[in-house]
Amino acid sequence: QVQLVESGGGLVQAGGSLRLSCAASGSIFKINAMGWYRQAPGKQRELVAAITTGGSTNYADSVKGRFTISRDNAKNTVYLQMNSLKPEDTAVYYCNTKAVGFKFEPLEVWGQGTLVTVSS
Are 97 and 2 in contact (CB under 8 A)? Predict the structure, then answer.
């Protein structure tokens, strides 16, 4: 079993900052990539940012220059620093990992989600 435990969501005023964390644990042989997705009410889930083991990153255009994804490979943990938050950033944020299990099977795991609310 592989688990992702997220933390750091909450309520913040527009222009403020929040930092999300997500730690992976369980039967993981190797993590290839970790990322954050979000889903606002009535909208589809979308990629916010992702990072590979080697450090390559990918961001949604809407968060470039405001959000920074980073990771601690030794702790199997990924972070999302969110600055200059806007009301349109309000959503449930989900952590995601693409990994390989001990039987070399591909794994894709989702966290339970953490709510980020940005007030205007």
Answer: yes
* Residue 93 to residue 91: CA distance in whole angstroms: 6
Structure tokens at 35: 């990322």
Q: Pairing state of beta strands 91-100 and 18-26?
A: unpaired
Find where tokens 């806007």 sit: 86
Between the CA of residue 116 and those of 35, 72, 99, what are the distances in Å? 16, 23, 26
Pairing of β 18-26 and β 2-7: antiparallel
Q: Measuring CA to CA, how many Å separate 83 from each of 32, 60, 63, 67, 96?
A: 26, 14, 9, 6, 21
Q: Match 């933390």 to its residue by tokens.
A: 7
58-116 pLDDT, tens digit each: 999 999 999 999 999 999 999 999 999 999 999 999 999 999 999 999 999 999 999 99
